[in-house]
Design goal:
heterodimer, A: about 100 residues, alpha/beta, Transcription Regulator spoIIAA, two-stranded parallel ribbon, B: about 700 residues, alpha+beta, Four Helix Bundle (Hemerythrin (Met), subunit A), Helix Hairpins, 5 domains, five-stranded mixed sheet, 21 strands
């Protein structure tokens, strides 16, 4: 019997925008190396832009390739609105806005 | 952030310049739809850019002006002289606000209110159509929605433009019902990901009452950094009998489906290429190839439609100055290399020196070319000046420009603005007569001021020509004698008399106006042109008008010179002035010894011996050379000991200690490290004329 690995929870800050994506990108690369499910907690995020959402999408794709669970959770209304504006709700919020691993 | 704000201010200033041009052209062609659209777009762009930096004062004000222009664009408001005047004043107000874009001062707020009030007087009320919510019922409901398909592919590097794409998508959503499809297949996993690259492309289906232009306007800020296709699938508000209704429209009008149903159905449609591929008629590469052809043809059409769209980058002028300085140093070092190589009989060294010389000449030309700017941009600014002055003085004046494509060094153009303003003001104030006086003189009501630029050798000649009353030679002469500028018996040529108006404090204007007539200005013009290494020539015919010609060097940094020697000293004569190099034979020297004349192309031409001007008057060499030059004082021969040859002259200023040096314009460093002075031929020949008339 294999035991399911404990997920890594990433708490994103209040702003997740272009000026922070380079740092986040490096952090996400390190997280991926751990080969564990990823939970992105967006409860603090009030402001996100296209660059931030696209990076989340790439992380999601990386998790899919490695067959790791990927969940975005506690999404705040302004972020839901931005995700919908970009037409990404179907992919990024497929587990619902409070999805669990 | 400050850096971005600075870029915003610079771009906004450029846009305001464009706006002024468009408005002035629109005044002459009030029905021109393209101009109306262009004026609207400029205002919209300024508003949008200001919003990015939260410059509230500018945003609020431009929003109102934009709404008025939108009414014009929609055909609800006509282009009148008053509207143009108000929009020009608004442009000036925005220009003022740009000096402190974050601040809303009481003065600025009051001026905004004042202008908005004027707009309201003109339009009844400023109707904000763009942000008006969809009507809940009544007449509006009867009109059809249009359905657009929008394909939006941001360039990969769009993040670098600072564009906020989400704000753009929000703006699009505000226009109506919008379905968004994001194509994400190109987003790589993190291993191949670049956080500063855009990978998504979007397709939108927008149901709205907005026009095609209004939909396209949403993408104004990114149109140069994306691929955009806006296709009208279903057209709303169509006039009856204007064409066959589409099935979707009929079904909506019968209440059988909603616009959303139609949008959904249209979304389900497959592209033709996909159907053909599925039917096995064509391969994927056939589709890609056809799409490529389509894209190329579209690009070509766009290029033909909008003129040659050049790829440009914005570079600070200081960087260009620095480049030119470095090139100047390189040219000097190259001269030294050439000099050294000539002392050795080494073919490899000589070949290398020649190669470096060729390359440095090419680099010099390219570097200088970077700083060359067409004078047309400066000319177009004067259209507003002429318009406003004509209104102030109650005159009717047309500004004509010619040769706007003529290029001059940016540093020359920058310093040329003020002198040109003075000269144009003078032409309008003192030259062009009032309409009544013109009619009485048998002329057209409207006077004409022409600005004409053209190349003349290594110089550019700019003419300011008017068809006004012309200069009064007698009055100028009598005023000059009264002021003691000209002796009672002194005989002057026509050009010399006219040039008296360039003397400090000289004005023959009967009345001093706000515009000109205080005699302050023309002497400043003269000094400015002289400081640019240029000269002024004036012609005028009483009753017919005047022409002031400014002859200016193309550049102030590096010139082609003729290197000459007197004794052990070397001097540079600007090659642009040189007409010929001759030998001054002993016979010729003796023949006209006293008068110092020589025969050149059938005429007797005076000469000046530089040795006598700068060195020992007695110790004449056996053989001398004559450099025949064209100056503003006529043709003169300059006698030197030896003509060494042409020389790329990097001009160095002599510094403040030598600023009053009269006969020299600068210096250059030669290949052997010594210095050569650059001669000011106009001053030298003027001095010679004075000495000659004084019998020295």
């Amino acid at each position: 019997m294999t035991r399911k690995k404990k997920p890594i929870v990433v708490n994103l800050p209040d702003e997740f925008q272009i000026h922070a994506v380079n740092d986040r990108f490096q952090e996400f690369l390190q997280i991926l190396e751990e080969e564990r499910p990823v939970v992105i907690d967006m409860s603090l995020v009030n402001s996100v832009d296209y660059a931030g959402l696209q990076l989340l999408y790439s992380l999601m794709r990386s998790c899919e390739e490695k067959e790791l669970d990927f969940i975005i959770t506690n999404v705040t209304p302004p972020v839901i609105q931005k995700i919908a504006l970009c037409g990404l709700s179907g992919d990024l919020l497929k587990e619902g806005i409070n999805g669990s691993v | 952030m400050d850096q971005f704000k600075q870029v915003f201010i610079e771009e906004a200033e450029e846009l305001l310049g464009t706006l002024e041009d468009h408005l002035l052209n629109l005044e002459d062609a009030p029905e021109d739809r393209e101009l109306i659209d262009a004026v609207f777009r400029v205002m919209h762009t300024i508003k949008g850019s200001a919003a990015m930096f939260d410059f509230k004062g500018i945003v609020d004000f431009t929003h109102v002006v934009e709404s008025v222009l939108d009414q014009v664009r929609g055909g609800d408001l006509s282009v009148t002289r008053e509207l143009i005047e108000l929009t020009l004043q608004s442009r000036d107000h925005i220009h003022e606000m740009l000096s402190a874009p974050s601040d809303i001062t009481p003065e600025s707020e009051s001026r905004s209110r004042e202008l908005i009030g004027e707009f309201e007087k003109l339009t009844g009320r400023v109707e904000d159509k763009r942000n008006k919510p969809p009507a809940a019922g009544g007449e509006e409901e009867e009109s059809f929605f249009s359905l657009y398909r929008i394909l939006f592919i941001p360039d990969r590097d769009i993040f670098f433009s600072g564009t906020n794409l989400i704000a753009l998508l929000e703006e699009l959503q505000e226009l109506g019902e919008c379905s968004t499809i994001a194509y994400t297949s190109e987003i790589p996993s993190l291993s191949g990901y670049n956080p500063e690259t855009s990978y998504i492309r979007w397709e939108f289906f927008l149901t709205t009452k907005a026009s095609l232009n209004e939909v396209k306007d949403v993408f104004i800020f990114v149109e140069s950094s994306c691929q955009l296709e806006v296709t009208l699938l279903v057209e709303g508000d169509r006039e009856e009998g204007e064409g066959e209704k589409r099935l979707g429209e009929i079904l909506i009008s019968r209440g059988l489906i909603t616009p959303d149903d139609l949008t959904g159905a249209l979304k389900a449609q497959k592209p033709v290429g996909q159907i053909m591929m599925e039917n096995g008629l064509i391969s994927r590469s056939d589709v890609e190839s056809a799409l490529y052809q389509q894209k190329t043809e579209r690009k070509l059409r766009e290029k033909q439609g909008s003129g040659e769209r050049e790829n440009t980058i914005r570079v600070k002028s200081e960087k260009l100055d620095s480049l030119v300085d470095s090139v100047g140093e390189l040219v000097t070092a190259q001269a030294r290399l050439s000099q050294i190589s000539s002392q050795y009989d080494d073919p490899s060294l000589n070949a290398l020196a020649e190669l470096i010389e060729r390359l440095s000449t090419e680099l010099r030309d390219n570097a200088m070319g970077l700083r060359m700017v067409p004078i047309g941009t400066t000319f177009s600014r004067f259209k507003r000046l002429v318009r406003d002055l004509s209104n102030t003085l109650g005159k009717e004046i047309i500004l004509e420009t010619k040769g706007g494509e003529t290029e001059l060094d940016k540093s020359v153009i920058d310093k040329l603005n003020d002198p040109l303003v003075h000269l144009i003001r003078n032409s309008i104030d003192h030259g062009i007569e009032c309409p009544q006086a013109r009619l009485e003189a048998g002329k057209r009501r409207e006077g004409t001021v022409s600005l004409i630029a053209d190349y003349s050798g290594a110089n550019v000649v700019i003419q300011i020509r008017d068809d006004g009353a012309g200069l009064n030679k007698e009055r100028i002469l009598s005023k000059a004698r009264e002021k003691g500028l000209v002796g009672v018996d002194e005989v002057l040529t026509e050009n010399e008399i006219f040039k008296l108006i360039l003397q400090p404090g000289f004005s023959t204007a009967k009345e001093v106006t706000d515009v000109s007539g205080r005699g302050v200005g023309m002497d400043v013009v003269s000094k400015e042109i002289e400081s640019l290494g240029g000269s002024i020539f004036i012609t005028s015919t009483s009753g017919k008008g005047s022409t002031i010609s400014l002859s200016l060097p193309l550049t102030l940094a590096i010139i082609e010179g003729l290197l000459v020697r007197i004794g052990d000293e070397k001097f540079v004569i600007p090659l642009a002035s040189v007409q010929a190099c001759l030998e001054l034979s002993r016979e010729e020297r003796e023949l006209h010894r006293e008068k110092r004349l020589f025969e050149f192309r059938g005429s007797m031409v005076p000469y000046i011996r530089l040795r006598e001007l700068f060195l020992d008057r007695r110790d004449l060499p056996l053989r001398e050379h004559l450099v025949v030059t064209q100056t503003e004082n006529g043709i003169f021969g300059i006698v030197v000991d030896e003509v060494i040859g042409d020389y790329q002259t990097v001009i160095k200023n002599l510094g403040r200690l030598y600023k009053n040096l009269q006969l020299i314009t600068g210096a250059t460093i030669l290949g052997d490290g010594t210095m050569a002075l650059i001669l000011d031929l106009n001053k030298i020949t003027a001095l010679a004329k004075v000495e000659s008339s004084a019998g020295i």
